[in-house]
Amino acid sequence: MAINLQKGQKIDLKKSSGSTLNEFCVGVNWGAIEKKAFFGLSKSATQVDLDLSCIMIDSANKVADYLYSPQYKPDFLAKYGLAPGKLVSKTGSLRHSGDDRAGDSGGDDGLDNEVISVNLGTVDSSITQIFFFLNNVGAEDFSQIPYAKIRMYEGTPTKVKEVFASYNVSAEAQFSGKKALIMGKLYKKDNEWKFNAIGDPTEDTFLGQTIQRIVKSYL
What we know:
Blueprint: E1 3-4, E2 10-12, E3 23-30, E4 33-37, E5 42-46, E6 50-58, E7 63-67, H1 74-78, E8 94-96, E9 114-119, E10 127-136, E11 147-156, E12 159-170, E13 180-189, E14 192-202, H2 207-217
Parallel strand pairs: 1-12
Antiparallel strand pairs: 2-14, 3-9, 3-11, 4-5, 6-7, 6-10, 8-9, 10-13, 11-12, 13-14
């Protein structure tokens, strides 16, 4: 049975069988914004473009690698000291499925909109933390987006075999004005990988600001 995580909860990657979760997907699923129209007789949906990204932190607390969308303009990234976006990590241990610019309309379809595939066995040994976060490139904030779920599962980006753990952030008034979410992190402790559900919303309007925030306040 999958673990339903709460904000701040930390778990190891041991399955009920006793084996360790080593190759898995970290997926994020979110809903389009639906509004009733024509006196409640129909619905209209506003597409939501969120970007799932991650940064890999080494033992010296430096950003050693990253995955984020190649669609970000290189000259704008450079203002934050960031390199152009890419979808595969240096060792190939993490791979991003690519952009989804819409979100789910008509309810949760059971599949994640953006997925990062992880092979912990090939992560560079110097990496001690991997942060996963969302940035909204649209005008909406997270008080309007009906849900944003992060989950870890065995399978592929297009086929879920078995869900290990999930964490759901639902639309709440306290998220008004919040344009980014630091969802969670994988971290190494005593040479074993664990996961922490963070779930912190921020006012960041650009990915570079979120990365700076993580480096300054979460390491």
